């Protein structure tokens, strides 16, 4: 038996998955390639050379993480710019964290992005810090400028 779905229900479902205009505008600000400037996990600072080898490329709500140009993770992000501080949820596409949500905070000031995240499926951080024992990661990224070309 074929079921007929009312067109208004289809329209409502389509609109429900469409982000609000303010979320779309905020997501647009995140687009591009971001290079890590610093990376601190659970009170331990990552060496600057290692941190600077990490990039995150945002295309729509998709993020590809790379180290030394080699992809090591993909994820989807959900932003809430109305929260104070602003929040980000990150869901990995694969690996041991697949389908787990990493909850975090973010601030985007010009071409600098700061992320503070907890462990997968753990609580959202309350502030931008990564001290010993708090199971948080604090990352600062700088937007890479596109090459101007010859």
UniProtKB/TrEMBL annotation:
Domain of life according to the entry: Bacteria
UniProt xrefs under NCBIfam families: Planc_TIGR03067 (TIGR03067)
Protein's name according to its UniProt entry: TIGR03067 domain-containing protein
Source organism of this protein record: Paludisphaera mucosa
Source organism phylogeny: Bacteria, Pseudomonadati, Planctomycetota, Planctomycetia, Isosphaerales
């Amino acid at each position: 038996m074929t079921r007929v779905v009312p067109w208004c229900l289809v329209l409502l479902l389509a609109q429900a998955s469409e982000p609000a205009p303010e979320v779309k505008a905020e997501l647009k600000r995140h687009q591009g390639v971001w290079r890590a400037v610093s990376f601190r996990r659970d009170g331990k600072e990552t060496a600057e050379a290692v941190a600077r080898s990490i990039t995150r490329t945002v295309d729509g709500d998709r993020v590809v993480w790379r180290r030394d140009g080699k992809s090591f993770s993909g994820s989807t992000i959900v932003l809430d710019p109305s929260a104070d501080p602003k929040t980000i949820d990150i869901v990995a596409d694969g690996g041991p964290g697949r389908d787990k949500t990493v909850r975090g905070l973010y601030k985007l000031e010009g071409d600098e992005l700061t992320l503070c995240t907890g462990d997968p499926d753990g609580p959202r951080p309350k502030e931008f810090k990564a001290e010993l024992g708090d199971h948080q990661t604090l990352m600062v990224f700088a937007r890479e400028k596109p090459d101007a070309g010859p």
